[in-house]
Amino acid sequence: MCRNYPANPSCLRNITSLNDLTKDHLEELREFHRFGRSIAAAICGEDKSTSFKLGYHAIPSLHPLHLHIISSDLDSPCVTTRKHITSFASMFFVTADEVENHLESAFVESISLDVRKERAQDVLSNTPLECQFCARAASNVPDWKRHNQICPMIEAPSKKRRGDKQEELVNSLLGWKSTKVLTKSGARSKKRSREDQVNGANDTLK
User: Fold this and answer.
1) Spatial separation of the C-alpha atoms in residues 152 and 161, rounded to whole Å
2) Is the pLDDT of residue 186 over 60?
């Protein structure tokens, strides 16, 4: 089961993707994620056998920013292609917790989250079609979906799953970029500063 929800908090409405997020958005983003988790809990109801994960595609196919809520087993009629599977069963799917943790780690002002697009595209294109729990290789999408219904690791939460490892790796797609705009005068000042450094070095060598 998979559902998409556009960002509702006021400061997130103009956010088109993860690349627009800064630490200033963190509280509203947490509110958005709490809303998503409440929806997942309502869908599960009393059924404790189903769990959901919340997150974003590293490179979204739709705008504005929207949150995916999908069952952990990816058992959905909407999942019909290899790309669908990979986009949710690899680190291309950036979890809500990973986004929050990354924004919390902002080390200076005037920076925003930056998705490493080439690496993300490589993950989407080259991740093998494997079971996300036991890493069994599938020959095609129907084979993957059949195995996904019977994989014994789905019912073994105490064992180490393939998905657990990917939670640790997802940050490799996330980086930082500066939000400062360098004006012409600022560029000239920077150029003069470099020239002064060179002239100072030449004076030292005389």
Assistant:
1) 11
2) no
